[in-house]
Design brief:
The chain is of the alpha/beta class and about 290 residues long. The chain has eleven helices and 13 strands. The structure holds 1-O-phosphono-alpha-D-glucopyranose (G1P).
Length: about 290
């Protein structure tokens, strides 16, 4: 049984990215709406937040992202249609989505980086600790990944980053921490670097898309310089914050899928299909026929 916590009440979902890795699929629809089986990627993250006791969802959107707002809104015509056809199960399913959340939206006018996206949420977050969830990283875990982090946050009383050990050939795709072990799976961060070349990575502990941040991150982000591509990186903001306060990390217990790349996306589709009694058997049979 999961104990609900109120120390973190808000979760910010940066969702203004252009999704260029999935073109042409993302030409006219947000990458966050691509489905893993039949549920959009972003819904997995929102459900994780809710299951972790975080009920206020703040989505940082941009141009071309209105499908996300429609998805979490009431679909009046669709509901009337399903109701008239007696399709009660489907009706329940789509009502569940709009009943799910207390959601606010804020626009990030220009794609100026993850740190900038988090800054956009400041007026809605206010002066309290909050979560940041990068929906690309879909994590299947019990208790949910965010709940695991909230537990650590309550213990250490400071910012907590989720990390995972990754292979050396993958490390340059991530923010990477240097850290001292507090106890197995929990670390005190001593340094961090955004997407280092493999040979300069300070460890194999990669930042994966979950953060619990304290409100002083906003000042740190404002004081953070743009990187070479003109973006404000959250990793650099956290590095700045490290000068003023301890920052912690915890390792995830669960299965993480990086749905932000094509292979990771495909693996996630198969993984979640295999959890479905109606699909697992026939899909396994089909995969056996592939050579
Ligand atoms: C972002 C962060 C990076 C982190 C990664 C996790 O990068 O900047 O530090 O390791 O998410 O998914 P992105 O994948 O958006 O390029």
């Amino acid at each position: 049984m999961l104990t609900m916590s109120f120390s973190v009440r808000k979760a910010v979902f940066p969702a203004a990215g252009l999704g260029t890795r999935f073109l042409p699929a993302t030409k006219a629809q947000p990458k966050e709406m691509l489905p893993l089986v039949d549920k959009p990627i972003i819904q997995y993250g929102v459900e994780e937040a809710l299951a972790s006791g975080v009920e206020n969802i703040i989505i940082v959107t941009g141009r071309g992202k209105s499908a996300i707002e429609d998805h979490f809104d009431v679909a009046f015509e669709l509901e009337a249609f399903l109701s008239a056809r007696g399709k009660t199960e489907l009706l329940e399913e789509i009502r569940k989505v709009s009943n799910l959340i207390n959601v606010s939206y804020v626009r990030q006018g220009e794609p100026l980086g993850l740190g900038h996206a988090v800054l956009m949420a400041e007026p809605l977050v206010g002066d309290e600790s909050f979560a940041v969830i990068l929906a690309d990283d879909v994590i299947d875990a019990t208790p949910p990944a965010l709940a695991q982090m909230i537990k650590v946050h309550e213990e250490v009383d400071g910012p907590v980053i989720l990390v995972e050990r990754v292979r050396p050939e993958d490390i340059s795709n991530y923010g990477v921490i240097a850290a001292e072990t507090i106890r197995p799976g929990v670390y005190k961060v001593t340094d961090m670097v955004e997407k280092p070349p493999r040979e300069q990575a300070p460890s194999d502990l990669a930042i994966i898309g979950r953060y619990i941040l304290t409100p002083d991150i906003f000042g740190a982000l404002r004081a953070t310089r743009e990187d070479r591509s003109g973006e404000i990186q959250l990793t650099n903001g956290l590095k700045h914050l490290l000068k003023d306060r301890p920052v912690y990390a915890c390792e995830v217990t669960g299965v993480r899928h990086d749905t932000g790349n094509k292979l990771g996306f495909l693996k996630a589709v198969v993984y979640f299909a295999m959890q479905r009694p109606d699909l697992a058997g026939p899909l396994r049979e089909y995969l056996k026929t592939m050579t």
